[in-house]
Specification:
- The chain is built from five helices and four strands, in the order ββαααββαα.
- The chain has helices at 32-42, 44-59, 67-77, 109-117, 124-144; strands at 2-3, 6-7, 88-92, 104-108.
- With 147 residues, the protein is mostly helical.
- A hairpin with a 2-residue loop joins strand 1 and strand 2.
- Helices cover 46% and strands 10% of the residues.
- It has a two-stranded antiparallel sheet. A two-stranded antiparallel sheet has the order 3-4.
- The protein folds into two domains: 11-42, no CATH class; 45-119, no CATH class.
- The longest helix has 21 residues, at 124-144.
Amino acid sequence: MAVRGVEMKLPKCRTKYCLGLCLKSGRSPFCSKCRTRHWRERNPISYFFAKLRTRAKERGHAFSLTREQFAALWQQKGLNGGKTKFSLSFHRIRNGEGYHHRNVELRTLSENSRLRFVPFFKNKADEEAAISETSAQIRDFMAKGEL
């Protein structure tokens, strides 16, 4: 940035170990990356709501969930950020519909993943029956020497 032929250096970000540069206007002592990170830490509900809405739009799903409904679910279940198998995620009950208040429930990531890859198991009894049937078929093949 040059002012009347004099070269001015932009101030560096005040965050420890950050090498970013501040705004030209000097309104903030932080670079844009650090400002965004601070905002996400101060407003987790707004951040995750915007993230969910953006992903739904990218995937072409309808989204009519309001911020208040999202905040109610958030506070009811005590959501936190992060990705572990016990982290909660928003699950659409009927996949053909979008993210609506009546079509959304919270599940852990491991439950949600299981539902996506094993849709034909309706309940625990069906799952156990399928497992015992498969193991019986494997025993039959082994007895015949085909496996």
